[in-house]
Design brief:
Length: 114
Amino acid sequence: MKQLAYPTLLLVSLLLSSIFLQTTLAGPPSTTAPPMPTKPGPPAPPTPTKPDPSFCDSKCEVRCGNAGRHDRCIKYCGICCQRCNCVPSGTYGNKSECPCYGDWLSSQGKPKCP
């Protein structure tokens, strides 16, 4: 039994030292990783300079004129106007006039702006 212990111990120590030697010779890990492929998501709304609050208030009053939940419509219209610097004309639709306003989606994937 003693005859197998020393060769086994020698073999295990050689194996372990070769593993450690390989990792030290490999050098430090690279700090620049290759770019990860990402799924294209909805475009982020631009953040231009904020318009005058009275601009958004008047535009949103028109936009939300027929809304069933007027206060909620005004709130989200104001947020979208501040972010996008525009509000589509009329009380519904016409979102092609203001692409940022029309393309901004909620976390549920529904239009954020009224």
